[in-house]
Amino acid sequence: MSEVTSENCTHDCSTCGANCSSRQPESFLKALNPYSKVRKVIAVVSGKGGVGKSLVTSMLAAEMQRRGHRCAVLDADITGPSIPKSFGIHEHATGTEEFLIPVTTHSGIQIMSINLILENETEPVVWRGPVIAGAVTQFWTDVVWSDVDYMFVDMPPGTGDVPLTVFQSLPIDGVIIVTTPQDLVSMIVAKAVNMASMMNVPVLGMVENMSYFVCPDCGKKHEIFGESRAQAVADSFGIPQVAKIPIDPVITTMVDAGEVEHVSGEFVSDLVDSLEKNLPAREEE
Length: 285
Ligand code: ADP
Prior knowledge:
Layout: E1 38-46, H1 53-66, E2 71-75, H2 83-86, E3 94-95, E4 100-101, E5 103-104, E6 110-112, H3 129-141, E7 148-154, H4 161-169, E8 174-179, H5 181-184, H6 188-198, E9 203-209, E10 213-214, E11 221-222, H7 230-237, E12 242-245, H8 249-256, H9 269-278
Parallel strand pairs: 1-7, 1-8, 2-6, 2-7, 8-9, 9-12
Antiparallel strand pairs: 3-4, 5-6, 10-11
Helix pairs in contact: 3-4
Bound molecules: adenosine-5'-diphosphate.
């Protein structure tokens, strides 16, 4: 084999073993199929399950869609997929030998989730990490995502192997961290922030879910877990935007009824403003 010189360098380090000064770190990013177009990808992460990550993912997608953007949700939470149910979707995704077609919600959001493929949606997914990460990657590569402005990825909870692989495989433009007031006092947020920074992805915002409770009788706002520290914590990490969502039985009921698209977008409205501003989907057009 002839020696690689600056003259015959192809700039494709994946097919070349030369250890030269301009060698680029290996990229694990996977390409979309030729029928798909996705402009911006936002990962919604949490330190652990059950904090409302799927709710926030759905609310952000619904609010963006209401504003006229074309949105999609890739449900990467393979072992706890709750996205289809919250949108009231129970049918199966269709496909060809090669590609899968996402299911579309009432307002037109494109959805792909393991629950749209399983024979029975209550079947548990008992796969090992690499298989789960492979399924998520296929949701990116083998689904026909039709002209999407904003894709929201409901990430697997935590900062382990599976979220790490997803981070490396998808071209994520930014991260939203979802926490509860209790998690803010632990190291959970710091871990999520550090993971994003290791991946060179900006943290675009933080959502404190179950932040407060509004008494239905007197309308008084109660911070049941103590005075919110969300803004202080966000400031300490340089996170530009904070949203707070109250704990509200109406939200639970709407999600259970598959009506997450009708949950009020006011709680995430400022966050969505800032996503539109800092991550414009069609700046080049
Ligand atoms: P995660 O994706 O983090 O596991 P989910 O979004 O699935 O969490 O939320 C877990 C449960 O809590 C769901 O039934 C959801 O409807 C409910 N829930 C989440 N946030 C709220 C809230 N602010 N008010 C009421 N119920 C909520």
